[in-house]
Amino acid sequence: MKAKTKAWLEVAESDLRAARTLFSKRHYLQTIFLSHQALEKYLKALVQEVTDETPKFTHDFALLMKQSKIKFPDAIEESLLRLSPHYLGTRYPEEIAKFRKYYDRTFAVEFLSDTQGVIKWLKENYLR
Predict the structure, then answer these.
(1) Taking CA 16 as the corner, what is the angle to CA 101 and CA 14, rounded to the nearest 5 degrees?
(2) Which fold has domain 3-125?
(3) Backbone φ and ψ of 25, nearest 5°
(4) Which pTM does this prediction carry?
(5) How far apart are CA 111 and CA 100, in angstroms?
């Protein structure tokens, strides 16, 4: 594995650990934010590893999937496309106000679970 890939994975794993900790403390908005960050960094690690290109500066999972040039299984692609837009609702005050009620425990459980499922697939197939 390339050194730059490992660097992406180290910060991604740190974000994922923090997301789990925040979930246990019932900080659901932050759980979603850091889960998204972890998954974004995993996708950037994938781009780095398989293309040797610098990943795009983006939060958009579709752009990172395209840059990776990988054919994702339908279920993984669907998860990524469903999770991708939620970076907005966790970053900006006007968006946070709109989404705070929506980002409850149930949503955070599903988000974290889907994030971990995609990460598991990435690890098993490309990021060992």
Answers:
(1) 130
(2) Four Helix Bundle (Hemerythrin (Met), subunit A) (1.20.120)
(3) -95, 5
(4) 0.95
(5) 14
Q: What is the full per-residue pLDDT of the chain (128 aa) written as tens digits?
A: 999 999 999 999 999 999 999 999 999 999 999 999 999 999 999 999 999 999 999 999 999 999 999 999 999 999 999 999 998 878 888 888 888 889 999 999 999 999 999 999 999 999 99
Residue 39 CA to residue 44 CA, distance in Å, equals 9
Rounded to the nearest 5 percent, the helix, strand and coil shares of the chain are 75, 0, 25
Write out the two tokens for 4.
Answer: 């730059």
Query: What ranges do the domains of the chain cover?
Result: 3-125
